[in-house]
Amino acid sequence: MNNNVIENEKGTNSLTTMEEQLQPLLDDHQPPGPTLEKPLKTPAQKAMRKTFKRTALLANLLPTGSVLAFNMLSPAFTHEGTCPTAVNKTLTLVLLGLCTISCFFLCFTDSFRDERGKVRYGIATINGLWIVDCSVKVPAEEGQKYRLRFLDFVHGFMSMLVFGAVALFDENVVKCLYPKPSEEEKELLATLPLAVGLICSMLFICFPSQRHGIGFPLSRH
């Protein structure tokens, strides 16, 4: 009698163990639950999304410091795009102005490595490169290749245009400066920065800069 009870208990335990082992397998074969459908986007939203992706690389043409400062301060100054007070809008305009000026000015900076291999930064002038910390002097022959050129002004002007395009693709800035844009303004905001970015990108490719200034990739030499 006791043996039968023990065998029954063992059989029950084995069945329970088998059910526990099979449960994950059964769960995997259960039909998936209802999936949430993504909300449909309007043609304007799709165009804006594609434009954001295509112009994401424009920031690589700008000084990293200016872009980083803009990306960090823009959400705070615009209060996540709401701009509840006139102070927020003023701060946003000041931020845009300072970043634009820095993009222009940094195009006139350059760098070189001294005898010890240390990177030195300077500002391009008519006579050559003026070192910021005045710790070393560039030889006259070497300084001639760092002198100010007309192409520097072209790059500075294009950098300002590219930064303007990047700023207009920032949702916080657009919502702050254009809280209720009309259909024409929406179309202009979607096409103008893209056109400016593409044109400036082509010009940067055709007329590349030979400088490695502040905020730009360093030269190996």
Automatic annotation (TrEMBL):
Keyword Transmembrane helix: yes
Keywords in alphabetical order: Membrane, Transmembrane, Transmembrane helix
Transmembrane segment boundaries: 56-78, 90-108, 150-169, 189-207
GO-annotated cellular components: cytoplasm; membrane
Pfam families: DUF679
Main subcellular location of this protein, as a coarse class: membrane
Keyword Membrane (UniProt): yes
Cell location: Membrane
Membrane topology: Multi-pass membrane protein
Matches recorded under InterPro entries: DMP (IPR007770)
GO BP terms: endomembrane system organization
Similarity field: Belongs to the plant DMP1 protein family.
Protein's name according to its UniProt entry: DUF679 domain-containing protein
Species annotation: Heracleum sosnowskyi
